[in-house]
Amino acid sequence: VDRKFLPENTTYALVKRLLKESVRPYLKWIGFALVGMVFVAGATAASAWLMKPVINDVFVAKNKEFLLPISIAVLVTFAIKGFANYAQSVIMHYVGQRIITDTQHRLYGHLTRMDLGFFHQTPTGNLISRFTVDINMMRAAVSNALTGIGKEFLTPIFLVGVMFIQDLYLAVIAFVVFPVAILPIVKLGQRIRKVTVSTQEEIGQFTTLLEQTIQGARVVKAYRMEEYEKGRFRKIAERVFQLVFKTARIRSMASPIMETLGGV
């Protein structure tokens, strides 16, 4: 039976298990990080709101009375944003690294309980990849998801509030245009996910080949198979390159989409 079709391996089940085993123990720290993200979002919106008096009152009207208070307000706003961003970044890196360490403990404990048949059937490179590449990708996914929910979600809310306060007409236009970006971004995310899965598999094969070549160096030398092994390595390395480049190319496609909509 293909394991990917088992209920416990569905995306929802895996995310639920990840949240329960890895994220729940650090909810307090994540809460502190979210507070910092709120300050970052609020300071970002405040800096955008301050641009109007800076341009209109200081540069256009040349009103010197507003120069000092606006300068102090800008300094305080960016200071708050900087310190809050530092705090949430440090906390999220701590949580992400703890998730890696805890998962490695559980994974290694589970690995020691497996029978010998499992080790004979599973390539060593795939197992090593689970401890290194996969876990680090999981850490990045958790950190990016939590940061996205916090800072990247709250910042637009605060900025939208500033938009409606300063210009209701332009804010309504933005609400009509920007939802158009949702569909292509979702499609790009789906494509990146498929390519990422293939990349993980190829990296596992890559690690397996290295392990086999190093351990079997005497056999390779004895049968003069250097060119054959170089050919195998070249094929896998090129496949990894193509997949990594494809991922970067797909991610880069988001930039022209967002820039075009921003111009509109």
TrEMBL record:
One example GO MF annotation: ABC-type oligopeptide transporter activity
Predominant location: membrane
Pfam families given in the database record: ABC_membrane (PF00664)
Protein localization: Membrane
UniProt cross-references to PROSITE patterns, sorted A to Z: ABC_TM1F
Membrane topology field: Multi-pass membrane protein
Keyword Transmembrane included in the entry's annotation: yes
Segments passing through the bilayer: 26-46, 66-84, 140-162, 168-186
Domain (ABC transmembrane type-1) ranges: 32-264
Assigned keywords, A-Z: Membrane, Transmembrane, Transmembrane helix
PANTHER family (alphabetical): ATP-BINDING CASSETTE SUB-FAMILY B MEMBER 10, MITOCHONDRIAL, ATP-DEPENDENT PERMEASE MDL1, MITOCHONDRIAL
Protein name: ABC transmembrane type-1 domain-containing protein
Species assigned in the record: marine metagenome
Highest classification ranks of the organism: unclassified sequences, metagenomes, ecological metagenomes
